[in-house]
Every structure is written in C-alpha cells, then in structure tokens.
Write a structure and sequence with these properties.
Elements (H helix, E strand, L loop, with lengths): L1 H28 L1 H14 L12 H10 L8 H10 L7 H27 L3 H50 L4 H11 L5 H15 L4 H12 L2 H16 L3 H27 L1
Helix pairs in contact: 1-3, 1-5, 3-5, 5-6, 6-7, 6-11, 7-8, 8-9, 9-10, 10-11
C-alpha cells in the first residue's frame, strides 16, 4: 500500500515537472509566444521588470507550475503582499503559487516516506498525510508574512536616520530627488531595503511620475504606518509651501519618540 501510494505521488510530481519543462522549452523556441509572454509580464507590473536579472531555471519552472492554477480574485492583494515582502518581480505571484503547489505535494510525500522508513502505524500515517497538503499549501503564506514583518521592522528602524540625512541634504541645497538619491546611497549599509525603496522613488520621479504619486507608491510598497505619515506630511508641505527641512526634522523626532514608546511598551509586556 505504501509503495503504491509513493509511486503514484512520485509519478504525479515527475509528470508536473516534465510538463513544466516541455512548456518552457516550447515557449523559448517560439518567438511569438516568447514575445507575448514578455508583453504580458510587462503590462502586469511595468515597474518590477527592471529590478532583477533573468530568474534562475528553478524559479522559471516553479513559475510554470504556478501557472497551472487560474488567477484568483485576490491577485492584486497577493501582488501587494509579495511587494511588501520584497519580491517585486513580475513573475513573483506565479512563483509564490508554484511554491504552494510544490509544498502541498512534497509534504505528504515526505511524511509517507518517513512513515514507511520509521515503521509508523498505517492509520496514523494516512491520517496525517491527509492534513499535510493543506499545511504545505499554507507554509509559503506564513513565510511571506514573516518576510513582511522583517522588512517592515528594518525600514521602520532606519527611517529616522534617513530623515536626518535628508535634512542635511536639503539644507545643503539639494533638491528632493537628489536628496533621495544621496540618502539611498548613504543608508544602504544600515538598511538595504530602505535604500532600494528610496532609489525606486527617485527612479519613478525621473520617469515623469509626480513626487506625490511616487511617495504614495512608496507607502503602498512598504506598508509601514510611519511611512504613510511621512508621505502625508510631505504632501501637506508641498501644498502649504512650508520648509521641508523643518518638517523632516520634526517628523524624525516624533518617529524616535514613537519608537522609544513602542520599545518601552514591549519591555513592559515582556516583564
């Protein structure tokens, strides 16, 4: 019974992988299909195409597997969650879905093999193997949530220092675009995530996107509450014509105060 079930699962996994390889090979040999695929990825997320080189073969195969499932209603929310986790590639949703499919198949196979080798009772192995696909399908979601929290914390901890650097740049006579570019370079050792986001804001402004829209995109990509507050402050400053340097300095100080209050609250909860 075990050998038959293992054989069926392995056959299914090999069939899926072979079909993905075949589909990829046909696409790469057909210039029309290749161009259509590139156009589809470009229109899906124009800004994300430039943020990475050609993905490795493994990721391309996983993306092919992810394409087996039809697009769900929450595709936009999925893409937003992946961007906030740091995955901005156009094919990131397909890779994410492919990982869910592979994990849903690998978890029960691994458990059945372990049960056969360890001599576990058949009933226990069969019962747990029913649950394993659901657990494997949900694991990538947990990983993305972890990456979102990690990235959000890194950006949040480095943002006050970045604002201080921006104040220095603005007071030295640099424009907002040049200040963002300079701060992105200087802050890279402390926070690569924040550095990349500031570079992306500067890139969007250079391509013709207004400063307010580029800053709103920054807030949406990070999902950090303090970034939303910063964007609102800068937008209000532009409308009223007040000093950007003074506004940035005051906002950085308020952010440090909130960060200290959060640290004290966490310390009280821990004690």
């Amino acid at each position: 019974m075990f050998l038959l079930l293992i054989s069926v699962l392995i056959f299914a996994a090999v069939t899926v992988a072979a079909y993905a390889v075949y589909t990829r090979t046909v696409t790469e040999r057909n210039p029309v299909l290749l161009r259509l695929r590139d156009l589809k990825m470009l229109h899906a997320d124009t800004s994300s195409v430039a943020y990475g080189r050609r993905p490795p073969l493994m990721l391309r195969l996983i993306a092919q597997i992810g394409g087996f499932l039809p697009a769900a209603d929450g595709a936009d929310a999925m893409r937003t969650g992946l961007v906030r986790a740091g995955y901005r590639r156009a094919d990131a949703p397909l890779v994410f879905v492919g990982c869910k499919i592979l994990m849903a198949a690998a978890m029960p196979i691994g458990w059945i093999v372990y049960g056969a080798v360890a001599g576990r009772p058949l009933g226990n192995v069969a019962l747990v193997s029913v649950v394993m696909p659901f657990a494997g399908f949900y694991l990538p979601t947990l990983f993305i949530g972890y990456k979102q929290n990690q990235r959000r914390g890194e950006i949040l901890s480095s943002l006050p220092d970045a604002l201080d650097l921006m104040v220095v740049c603005v007071e030295a006579g640099l424009g907002m675009g040049a200040a963002l570019q300079r701060v992105g370079i200087e802050i890279r050792l402390a926070s690569r995530q924040l550095s990349d986001e500031l570079a992306l804001v500067n890139h969007e402004m250079q391509t013709g996107i207004s400063r307010s829209d580029a800053l709103r995109n920054l807030a949406e990509r990070t999902g950090v509450e303090d970034v939303y507050a910063l964007v609102a402050m800068l937008t209000q400053t532009d409308k009223l014509g007040t000093s950007i340097a003074q506004s940035l300095r005051a906002h950085a100080e308020s952010m440090r105060t909130r960060r200290r209050q959060r640290a004290e609250q966490m310390a009280r909860k821990a004690s």
